[in-house]
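#struct-pred
JK: can someone run the complex with manganese (II) ion? inputs below
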Amino acid sequence: MKAIDEEAFEKLRLSGRILRETREELKGFVRENMLIIEVCEKAEELIRRKGGKPAFPCNVSINEIAAHYTSPPNDIRRIPEKSLVKVDIGAHVDGYVTDTAVTICFNPEYREMVNAAEQALKKAVEAIRPEMPTSRLGALIEQTIRSRGFKPISNLTGHSVGRYLVHAGTSLPNVTHLSLTKVKVGEAYAIEPFVTVQNAVGKVENSPEATIFRFVKQKPLKNVYAKKLLKYIEEKFKTLPFTERWLQGIVPKEQHMEAFKELLISKAIMSYPVFIEASRKPVAQAEHTVLIVEDGCLVLT
Ligand code: MN
Ligand code: MN
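RT: done, structure tokens with the ligand placed:
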């Protein structure tokens, strides 16, 4: 069996502990009518204060928004009353990434849907082990969700995590599918069932908005401020996602928008569109990162 070395293991465990504590503190922090940016900044500050770094911007995705929304700078949007709020956070310690999410439910009508996501995650955590086919894991998650009268989002998946990588190459679908991929001992995986209502399409589509970005490669750039911004991004975030909130004060305020636009157009950076449920139905999510060990898994978060 392949075992990860002691140092990597300790860093991964610390990353997971930081994230678990942060998630639990956020559950008591998030309130209806609160500014979304307050939640994002609180989450990222907690991760830093505990000795980690955010592995990606805190995602606060509300109702039919399934994933990938973080506050842009000076965001004035608030948490609506009676909403379903998915808070998805990532931390890393020296590049060792963990990823977790919780759905905070301000609408009793959706309580059962949140439970279905949590139960599907629990079943998956109990079942996952070395050499398990990812197709079997997907079937188990789907069955758990459907037996409670809900529907999994079929085009969102869990994923392996790696050093400075949130998505390290292996996907863990939340539905029955054809694949020969197997779970590997010594690997860390984020398991994340997404659940919606029975009469929804059960898929996400890209919305026109993007608030999260990632470095792709160095490109020849005209604008001197674009060059400066790209250098900062590559050094600071490497291959990990970032948000414009983390770029304030790097170049003069008046130059930022044009410089940032050039980075996108030149494809030096890429954007992650906000994912929205295709039929605009509410979505719940639960997520843990686990490390695969000989007799099952260790929940890191
Ligand atoms: Mn996540
Ligand atoms: Mn994830």
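RT: quick notes.
The chain has a mean pLDDT of 97.
The two ends are 24 Å apart (CA to CA).
JK: thanks, will look after standup
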